[in-house]
Amino acid sequence: MKTIAVVGGHGQVGKGNVRELTNHGYFVVLMGRNLKKMEVFAQEFLPILEQSEVDLNKFVIPEKLADLDMVIVCLDQTDTQFVEQCQKLGIDYLDISANSDFLKKVNLLPIPEKSKRVIGLGLAPGVTNLAAAAYTKKEPSAQMIVIDVLLGIGDRHGEAAVRWTFEQLNRTYIHPKWAQPIENFVYSRKTDFGPPLGSVAVLTLALPISIYFFLQILHAIM
């Protein structure tokens, strides 16, 4: 059975991933900055999950890293050195973070030769993008696909996700129809979500919101 480290595994998104992975029989190692929170969460499992303290923004190679088959990162990074080290060691790398600036840096890295690298996992982007790609294969005449995400219908977001969302309020982006920069949460259009909501105004957000890890993708590459 493969060993998987979940970086940020004690956070809102990470906890769900860890529980699913352990339920499917994978050996999981918790990694993150807050050792106390990891220790508390690890006690929920039998046997107790291993923990390894690591700060990806002050990167020091964890001793456990070389023994891993895969890492799943559930928090934001600013530097690609952790990704590069995983590729060098032949460790599969999966990323669920929503920092588009960082993901662009990862895309510029060489394609790993000894491992797999998958980024943008989650609901949007992630499952929504896969569904859009599958649709265009069946309907090649489709010229444009608009993806709307309805939040607040039972999902719970952790502190980091809420903070990240508010940090995007002053960000700008370029809309395909206009040349000038547009502020986030300003431009809107009507979308029909069906009963009981009906047609509602949808505010645009340029940067991706990663919510949940799509476990089927994990099974597909392992």
What does this structure look like?
It is a single chain. By secondary structure, the protein is α/β, with parallel strands linked by helices. The protein is 29% helix and 18% strand. The protein is built from seven helices and ten strands. It has helices spanning 12-23, 35-42, 81-88, 100-107, 127-138, 159-167, 215-221, and strands at residues 3-7, 27-32, 50-53, 70-73, 92-95, 117-118, 172-174, 181-183, 188-192, 199-203. It has a six-stranded parallel beta sheet, sandwiched between helices. Strands 7-8 form a two-stranded antiparallel sheet. A two-stranded antiparallel sheet has the order 9-10. Strand 4, helix 3 and strand 5 (92-95) form a beta-alpha-beta unit. The longest helix is centred in the N-terminal third of the chain and has 12 residues, at 12-23. The chain is globular and about 50 Å long. It starts with a strand and ends with a helix.
